[in-house]
Design a protein that fits this description.
Length: 224
């Protein structure tokens, strides 16, 4: 199966934050069975886990993927599921290695990374990232406790942005699943190629859920 992608693609995962309106894109790539929860019609599904293995444990989950009525990219093809075809791993890896100089396996460590890499390979002009939050949202209580630690540590009036660097905030902010590093790298690399990436304002990607500030400045610079 030859894969071609249009100039605008939305990639949809299941996080409740960072969602965007996917109807504004020509193609919608669903990650696993996200379409069941988020109620959208995928043009393509990427499910990189072993579907035959998963069928033994979660048959409804697999059924929602393989019988959705759209192409599915996975690790291999299955005789019983004609909709499932192998992800073009060799082609994408060859392209990534030539363009980045990095070992491709370092960049493909979750299904979302595979989806973004496919968009890079086809130089998709506009990529929307919906429900892709690989880091827990900031916890207000943790940041409040952190500011108290700074105060008790001798700071009379710590700047408001200190809250993002408190021990409590950093501790609960650790990535919760694989893909955090690779997704950020691939987004940055794609941007350097001239691709445009979009995500929801409350997404944790690129620290979008932080207040606008510049690290180190007590008085924030006002730039146009």
């Amino acid at each position: 199966m030859e894969i071609t992608l249009p100039s605008s693609v939305a990639i949809c995962a299941r996080a409740k934050t960072g969602q965007i309106d996917v109807s504004d894109y020509e193609c919608v790539i669903g990650i696993n069975n996200t379409h069941v929860q988020e109620k959208f019609e995928p043009s393509l599904i990427i499910a990189m886990d072993d579907l035959k293995r998963d069928e033994k444990v979660e048959p409804d989950y697999v059924d929602a993927i393989v019988n959705k009525g759209c192409p599915v990219l996975s690790t291999r093809k299955f005789r019983k599921w004609p909709s499932v075809q192998p992800y073009p791993l060799e082609d994408v890896c060859r392209w990534l290695k030539r363009k980045t100089g990095l070992p491709p396996h370092r960049l493909l460590d979750c299904s979302i990374s595979f989806a973004i890499a496919l968009c890079l390979r086809h130089l998709v002009a506009r990529v929307g990232l919906s429900g892709i939050d690989l880091t827990p949202p900031y916890n207000a209580l943790a940041m409040k406790r952190g500011m108290l630690q700074f105060t008790e540590g001798g700071y009379r009036k710590p700047p408001d942005w200190f809250k993002y660097y408190s021990q409590d905030a950093l501790k609960q902010r650790r990535p919760r699943e694989p893909g955090w590093e690779s997704v950020h790298y691939l987004v940055g690399f794609g941007t350097a190629l001239g691709m445009k990436f979009e995500w929801g304002k409350d997404s944790t990607l690129m620290n979008s859920d932080r207040d606008r500030y510049f690290y180190g400045y007590n008085d924030m610079p006002r730039l146009k």
